[in-house]
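Good morning C.,

I know you're traveling, so I'll keep this short. The sequence:
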Amino acid sequence: MASEGRTAMFLGEHQHALDAKGRVILPARFRERLADGAFLSRLHDGCLAVYPPEEFEVVAQEMKEKARRGPAERQAARAFFAGTVDVVPDRQGRIPIPPHLREFAGLERDVMVNGVYDRVELWDAERWRALEREAGPRSAQSDSVLSDLGI
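The tokens, ready to paste straight into the viewer:
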């Protein structure tokens, strides 16, 4: 939970299912920070990101800055903003995922709702498990990166 002057982080891995209306429930520990609304966007890794407003503003400003560099960056910014919707969790903590975003992320039923510090990522559960299996042999590489970071 957030304490005075400190923003709550999103951490952990949670499996949920899409309901018949294409909604996914957010873990209770994530809901307070997203209660007033959030932004749902595509990520290049094939998943969706749920940003609280203050984090989305940071990302949006970065995209606007990059869009000034040239045509490719402007197109990337267009794609990012066109692929983003605002969402508000309902009383049960569910957020609606529009069909075009469900299709992009391959979300059909089981969804991994993962905290990634400043955002939440929504993954197709099978795609997430495949990424974890693929990362297995590279765990020594991951250990090296963490060691370089002093962790």
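Safe travels,
E.
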